[in-house]
Amino acid sequence: MSREVQQLIQDYQKYLATLTCSADESDYNSFNKTKELLLRIAEVENSALAVYDINKRNYALVKTKFDNQLLYPMNEAYKKGPEYFLNLMPVEDLKFTLDTMKRGMEFLHDLAAQARKEYKLIFEFRLSDPAGNLFRFIQQCVVLEQDRNGKIWLVLILNDLIPNRASDDLLFRKLIHIPTGKICLFHDDTEKSSSKLLSQREMEVLGLLSQGLQSKEISDKLFISVNTVNNHRQKIIEKMKVENTHEAIVYAKQIGII
To answer: How far apart, in whole angstroms, are the C-alpha atoms of residue 176 and residue 126?
Structure first.
């Protein structure tokens, strides 16, 4: 670990130490009743799911399917806490991730307690495996539970592996108000990422595809030829570096552009 990385992680640990909350045995017993549901969600979403416990500053729950792809035991890694993953990031991703999480938490703490569960933090990062290969992930975070004093206690985290994304692609982040879809933080980053991804017409086509429309139906709706629609579909796949339009729709929903 380089001195710069060590200092960055130490500074972030100091910040986490300022986040306090209170949870007793009855709170943890109540959370245990929701674990099975969360594990089922992880199976359905095919995601790595974790619940971070601010009270104990470690993971309260972990479920992942990425062990074989990343060549190390992810469940064991999760037991060691967030620092394990922070050490697997390139330094630029580490800076990006720590800044994103810190600013996201500060934003949430400034909200009224009853409003915090209406917001979702979304961002990308890369992890290296033991062979030095980089894997790109997208993480979604929401407040799961607060303590009896209204302080954030449990944070639900979903991580998805993003296939075929170039290692030098701009990392994406934003914090959104879930009911309205309004971007509340990292506006400039979102504009830069979105503008490099798809054109306005490609966004229209992708949005209609996500509604289940076929090329002929999209052609009629947008007053363009079927051939033009199919060209847009191909460009969407190429630009988003996915295998098909289904993967493009999934990724677009994850980053909140449709």
So the answer is: 22
**pLDDT, tens digit (0-9, with 9 covering 90-100), for 68-113:** 666 666 666 677 788 888 888 999 999 999 999 999 999 999 999 9
Reported confidence tier of residue 239, pLDDT bands at 50, 70, 90: confident
Instruction: Please list the residue range(s) of the chain that carry CATH number 3.30.450.20.
Output: 3-192
| CATH code for the domain defined by 198-255 | 1.10.10.10
The candidate with the shortest Cα–Cα distance to 56, out of 102, 19, 87, 83, is 19
CB atoms within 10 A of CB 158: 19
CB 171 within 8 A of CB 123: yes
Fold of 3-192: Beta-Lactamase (3.30.450)
Between 76 and 41, the higher pLDDT residue: 41
SS3 content of the chain, % helix, strand, coil (to 5): 50, 20, 30
Give yes or no for residue 253 having a pLDDT over 90.
Answer: no
